[in-house]
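Batch job 17 of 40 flagged for manual review because the log was empty.
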Amino acid sequence: MLFSLVKIFVPTAVAFFSGIVITPLATHFFFKYKMWKKKARTENTSSEDFKNVHEAKAKNEVSVPCVGGIIVFFSVLTTTLLFAILPYFFEGQILDELNFLSREQTLVPLFIFIFGAFLGFIDDILEIEGKSNITRNSPWY
């Protein structure tokens, strides 16, 4: 029972801390290349006061990058590869058990995760380039 918990929490902790290590590097890259939506609103407004308030806000506001999923993707990818490679360099039952790529039940969720990350990345790139109308035409926006 205890070892089953270790098999879950050790890779989770490694992925979390690798995400923390990756975040400053990725954030620097995201801000350097301005990886955020270029326009938040495109509809016309009739009130001049409304326009003035939002124009002043836009001048002082720092944009937030929209590609943060890359950090999650790379932290999971590095953790997966780390625990897949470690048993080849070090002997031990524990490292063999922590290699969750050797378990068949984890391959399908891993491939779904990779596919979802790919779709999210494509959506973010379209948003950054301003070629996506998915969120602008959303009734909740």
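Reviewer: the log was empty due to a logging misconfiguration, but the result itself is present. The helical segments are 2-32, 48-60, 69-89, 93-98, 107-129. Unflagging and moving on to job 18.
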